[in-house]
Amino acid sequence: MHLRAGDVLQRGQGSHDRSATVGALPLGRKVRSRGRRVARRERSTAAGGEGGGAGRGARRRGGLELGAGRTGGSLLRIERYAPSATNRPKPPTKLSLPPRIGLCRLRAHAPPMASSLVSRPHLPPRPVPAATLASTFRARVAAGGLGGLGVAAGVRCQAQAAGDLDSHYMRRCVELARKAAGHTSPNPMVGCVIVRDGRVVGEGFHPKAGQPHAEVFALRDAGDFSENATAYVSLEPCNHYGRTPPCTEALINAKVKEVVVGMTDPNPIVASKGIEKLQGAGIDVRVGVEEALCRRLNEAYIHRMLTGKAFATLRATLSMNGIVTNQIGKGADQSGGYYSQLMKEYDGVIISSDLAKMSTLPVSHEAGANQPQYIIIAQGESSRLHIPSLSKEHASKAIVLADSPVTVEPAGVEVAVLRQVDLDSILQLLAQRGLCSVLVDFREAGESFASLLNDFQEDKLVQKVVLELLPVWLASEGLNNLAFGGRQSFPLKNVEYRDVNGCMLLEGYVDV
User: Fold this and answer.
1) Exposed site from 97, 149, 353, 509, fewest CB < 10 Å?
2) 366 in catalytic set
């Protein structure tokens, strides 16, 4: 039997009706046109009917007419398929759903989804309004869509979508806050996003100590759109007068309807008082969105508030055979290099007097970087210390900590004589001076400098370790290793590593 593309099969009137029959087809044979099935053989469900579709039990599907035919008929009539405008196949309906809606846990016996899901970027710049997403989803469920999923599944998915939007805006707050890395101490880094009807209408971050806080900049950016909006802020808004007015008053005066907070402020002056003030003004407050990320952002500020000491990170470079070297990896101190970024992020860097005398002081080459404070350890020095790479213009950026009086060149460098030069005293002094974080750079380190780090794990003095492993094997006349830290072994937590220009960089936290 020869069939042409586009033909439709219809049950014939009987085995002897040959007016349009070209041959007999076995049961189950299908006719396809351009890869699309347009008809199929169906078994009769009703007896009788003499017409090829005009008999009893006849049904219509678009331009295809199926007849009951005779029960024993095995021949098919071929007619030209002419689809009308009303029965032309329609493209599948696309259903706009919240991000990650497809990850909702569904019952195992639920039938397949009737509609395709529209994929979305993980962090869309301007997300679809939450109200629109929710209403679309509710309408779909009410219409019996989503394969008959229950209302409970819809509620779970809506809650997950709302949580995803909250996380997105809070991550944006952290991204904004990081723009001021190295500039805000003793204040924390804070970012704020104002959202109204699912659209970002204002953004801001705290640029430096003494400047307005993130909420103030975001509200200014939003203007009148702040009314009935939701404010996302990575740290609890302050409720006290300092160098700037309280942020809680700015939010209340702007008539925001809700505030989403990443974490509470460990500063005892604030410590949930800002949240209570907002709630007392009738503003809904939610706390703890992306809290781990927000705490990581301000880990140094939190540590200083809780301990009264600066957050300390030990940095060293090792060869493949474990020898400490004074050199750093290729490009590490250039713009974009890890060392240059550390110099931007940390408030201060502790170095030995030998390093200060022999090489240039470490600097950051990142755009807009605030160069760190140089803390130079001078133990057992003679009465004079010359720092050739330090200019008079930058003399105020350095402080020499010594165990006896010493004269420093160039003039203008501050000298502090300590009764005992140990890391605990140094970290307390730096915290009192407003430094939240400090990098202990272990280069050109003699025995006196290494002695600062004895028992740093038991005394909880170092919170983080950064090690750079160079692909070289160094010759050494004697032992040269990091033989300090404590009398017992201890693991590092949350260790991360990456390849940097052929070197391996490892970062981990001391388990304290």
Assistant:
1) 509
2) no
